[in-house]
């Protein structure tokens, strides 16, 4: 999301000529902090410490949907997500470097 949001800002800069706004910069900083947190969590997970995460809840239907469904869907759904993310980033890169894209006025 960080890359997509940053590229869409540059595409908007190319098409409209307006720069990044304060809110866009704040959201980019928040997304970059999220990227850093995922990187740190992955490095922390690879240590040899025992897993102290809480047990998954499955008492009610709401618990099953919020706790069990994402873990069940992600192994297959991640390929759809990755394909969509790659297509979006590729489209934004094409829009950024394509000379024939008309400018909005």
- The class by helix and strand makeup works out as mainly alpha
Rg, Cα atoms, Å: 19 Å
Shape: elongated
**C-alpha end-to-end distance:** 27 Å
Integer count of domains: 1
Could you describe the 3D structure shown?
- Helix 1 runs antiparallel to helix 2 (about 20-45) and helix 1 runs parallel beside helix 3.
- The protein has one domain (about 1-45, about 55-95).
- About 70% of the residues lie in helices and about 0% in strands.
- The chain has helices spanning about 1-15, 20-45, 60-95.
- It is mainly α.
Key structural traits:
105 residues, 3 helices, 72% helix, elongated, single chain
Chain-wise SSE layout:
Blueprint: H1 2-16, H2 22-45, H3 61-97
Helix pairs in contact: 1-2, 1-3
What can be said about this structure in brief?
Helices cover 72% and strands 0% of the residues.
